[in-house]
Amino acid sequence: MFLTGSVICSPVKTLKRRPVEDISVWKGMTVSELCRMYSGAGGFSAKKLATSVEIMLDMKADKNCVKFLSFPACICATGTRGVIRQMLEEKMVDVVITTCGTLDHDIARVWKDYFHGEFELDDVELFKKGMYRLGNIVIPTGNYGKILEDKMTEFLDDIVKDKKKWSTKDIVWELGKRLDKTSILYWAWRNKIPIFIPGITDGAVGSQLWMYYQCHRDFAIDMFQDEDDLAEIVFKAKKTGALILGGGISKHHTIWWNQYRGGLDYAVYITTAEEYDGSLSGARLREAISWGKLRANAKHVTLEGDATILLPLMVAALIGDKKKHRR
């Protein structure tokens, strides 16, 4: 590759003269078969989706690879929560880095429902009726703040009986053990998959931790223990890979820690953000190479699109390949 102005270019001589193939669909076609068709189609985002699945399969096949998953909380308010839960249930990832809101939505939805809405609903009217809008999801206030306040008070009284100082990883497992099988946190605890929350106070659960602290001054969240635990994972890993959904602190903490081992060996990044404003969310994976957060020879792809559409397709393709392999 070489630079032309600010654009990274590939030498034309490296192009493989591979013909573009037409996509065919048929009754009973599996998602795995469709993704393989996308690989041959050679067109736009379809090819990137196929490449994403191929990289994820390579990560899975590499027994030396520690697999990270990072994502923002918002998608846990949608049905995509079930796909993430399934990934942890089937041990498709080894480490999770996310935001505090993931705890909020995951815990609240164990007991309360969220509802279909519209992006265009009148937000002033929703406020008057005691309803939150998260995109086109509607959440009655009692199904979020009140249930979290009640449950967190109950949980914390039990959790801190014998231990006052907690990392986010350990307190997430303690929360998970008190939830049911519909929960992401439950499967993290059950399968001992660490979940790290670097922005633990930025959400309703974090606020409940702070409020609990007002009357229990010996209670503490030990963020440095999380960093110690991440260091042990990263420094021991022979290889690392990541599926990164969206940007923000969850994306950055994932790539930040992997720079200490020379960068990720595999990476798939799904984003809807633009690159031109210099934001972390808009930054393509190739930018991470300049920081040493992604190896120069890493297998990687940035896939532009909505994770609520793309993640279920990718996981369906991965599971389909696994079932085929079993047969």
State the gist of this model:
The chain has helices at 31-41, 44-61, 80-89, 100-111, 123-128, 145-159, 168-176, 184-190, 204-215, 223-236, 248-258, 285-291, 307-326; strands spanning 2-4, 7-9, 65-71, 95-98, 115-116, 131-134, 137-140, 165-166, 195-196, 220-221, 239-245, 264-271, 294-304. By secondary structure, the chain is α/β, with parallel strands linked by helices.
Write structural notes for this entry.
This protein has 13 helices and 13 strands. With 327 residues, it is an alpha/beta fold. The protein has a single domain, classed as Deoxyhypusine Synthase (3-Layer(aba) Sandwich). α3 links the parallel β3 and β4 (95-98). α7 (168-176) packs across α8.
Name its key features.
327 residues, alpha/beta, 3-stranded antiparallel sheet, 13 strands
Q: Architecture, according to CATH?
A: 3-Layer(aba) Sandwich
Percentage beta strand? 15-25%
Please report the first level of CATH classification, the CATH class. Answer: Alpha Beta
What's the N-to-C terminus distance? 42 Å
Name the overall outline.
globular
Task: Indicate the mean pLDDT.
Answer: 93
